[in-house]
Specification:
Blueprint: H1 22-37, H2 42-59, H3 68-90, E1 98-102, E2 118-121, H4 122-148, H5 151-157, H6 163-192, H7 200-227, H8 238-263, H9 273-291, H10 306-327, H11 331-335, H12 349-357, H13 361-364, H14 369-372, H15 387-390, H16 408-411
Antiparallel strand pairs: 1-2
Helix pairs in contact: 1-4, 1-10, 2-4, 2-12, 3-4, 5-6, 6-7, 8-9, 10-12
């Protein structure tokens, strides 16, 4: 009789324990961030933040970079507070209900439009808070995607024609998670040495080592990719290379213009979705032609299945909801409420429904293996404790993207092509 392994939970097939494709998480977060860019309604922005926080809590793994969401949340709170301070000191003096007056300083005529001090009205503070909250919501959305998926898996999922650019982008995306990991290590080292870990003195002593360590680890990632022959391509004719570069460049340009048309509610209707669709077609053609030059194989590729489609569609549904709301009667005023006179903003039902659909990943996304694993033998005497909790304090060098101990299979996940090598 075959023995049942304790490491595999009963009633659960191993294929269900997988990580969602990183592209699906980025589409989901990008849709929510784009929806936040189209509104200054504080209630709707707060709803987006609540949805993002709930999904992160439901699908966060035990990997070290999954702790970066709290750092992004603190950064978002700082952005809101900083925007209020800027409005109080240097903002445009909006007429309305004066709350208090800041001592003002006269400025020369060539600085017209800039003020230093003066009366601060409730309308000005509410407007500054709404604008700061919008930027904070965007930061939280991208903080969520850095928490939910590994930047290394994103690098592996990039098309073959974007390998060179992918290395540079991954170095940038890996900087924030690596900074969080490095900050934890330096904080622990300072605590063991009896040095302060909170306050201004701690920040002054930790800032430079954290930035230096995070940058070094990100650059080391790019160097390892280059050493393995990452991005090597088969030889092709100059004509095919020119066509590929032209299609990819025009596609990126059209996508950029189309995204601007979609995000800007005042842009012409023909500048948004039509240009975006044409750009996506041209970009897909360029990436497909570039992908035919790839010479590497992949041992364990990230699949794109039903959960990926549902997660991507739920994020884009939030953007679609704000677009539909702007076209309805009174929807534009609800998305960007007027500050004169002040009043309670109304919630556009179309935008609320779209943001509510963005909760789908909390159910549709596969449960990460680090959360679904049964207790190990080491923790058998503590029923109910999960493997991810046991490894929560482990070093980032000892864990893979799922939060499990790093193994040879997780270190080198792709099969190498003879004579080329793969990341």
């Amino acid at each position: 009789m075959t023995a049942i392994s304790r490491s595999q939970p009963l009633g659960r097939h191993p294929a269900t324990d997988r990580l969602l494709h990183p592209g699906a998480w980025w589409l989901w977060a990008g849709g929510l961030a784009a929806a936040a860019m189209r509104t200054t309604n504080p209630f709707l922005l707060g709803l987006i933040i609540a949805v993002v926080a709930y999904v992160v809590a439901a699908r966060r793994t035990a990997a070290p970079w999954s702790r970066s969401f709290a750092s992004f949340a603190r950064l978002a709170a700082f952005v809101v507070a900083f925007r209020l301070v800027i409005q109080i000191l240097f903002g445009v003096r909006v007429p309305g209900t004066t709350l208090f007056t800041v001592p003002s300083v006269g400025l020369p005529s060539w600085m017209a439009g800039v003020t230093l001090g003066g009366p601060v009205t409730a309308e000005a503070l509410v407007g500054a808070f709404n604008q700061g909250l919008r930027l904070a919501t965007v930061l939280i959305c991208f903080g969520a995607v850095n928490t939910l998926c590994s930047p290394y898996r994103l690098l592996r999922a990039l098309p073959a024609s974007l390998y060179e650019a992918g290395v540079a982008v991954t170095v940038a995306l890996a900087f924030a998670p690596q900074a969080v990991i490095q900050a934890g290590r330096i904080r622990e080292a300072r605590r063991l040495r009896g040095r302060p870990v909170r306050g201004v003195a701690a920040i002054r002593g930790m800032a430079l080592p954290v930035l230096e360590g995070a940058l070094d680890r990100s650059v080391a990632l790019a160097a390892s990719m280059d050493t393995r022959g990452y991005g090597r391509r088969a030889p092709t004719s100059a004509r095919v290379q020119r066509l590929t570069g032209l299609a990819t460049g025009l596609g990126f340009l059209a996508v950029s213009v189309g995204v601007y048309g979609v995000l800007d509610a005042g842009a012409p209707s023909g500048l948004g979705l039509p240009v975006l669709g044409a750009g996506c077609v041209a970009l897909a053609a360029g990436l497909f032609m570039g992908g035919t030059r790839a010479v590497r194989t992949r041992y364990r590729p990230d699949p794109w299945r039903g959960p990926e489609w549902l997660v991507s569609a739920s994020g884009l549904a939030a953007l679609a909801g704000t677009i539909v709301a702007a076209r309805l009667v009174g929807g534009a005023d609800a998305l960007n409420p007027s500050l004169s006179p002040l009043g309670w903003p109304t919630l556009p039902w179309a935008a609320v429904a779209g943001v509510a659909l963005a909760l789908a990943p909390a159910v549709a996304a596969p449960v990460p293996p680090g959360l679904a694993a049964a207790p190990t033998n080491r923790a058998a005497d503590r029923p109910g404790e999960r493997l991810g909790e046991d490894l929560g304090e482990a070093s980032g060098d000892d864990l893979d993207e799922t939060g499990h101990p790093r193994t040879p299979a997780s270190v080198d996940d792709d099969a190498r092509v003879p004579g080329v090598g793969a990341a």
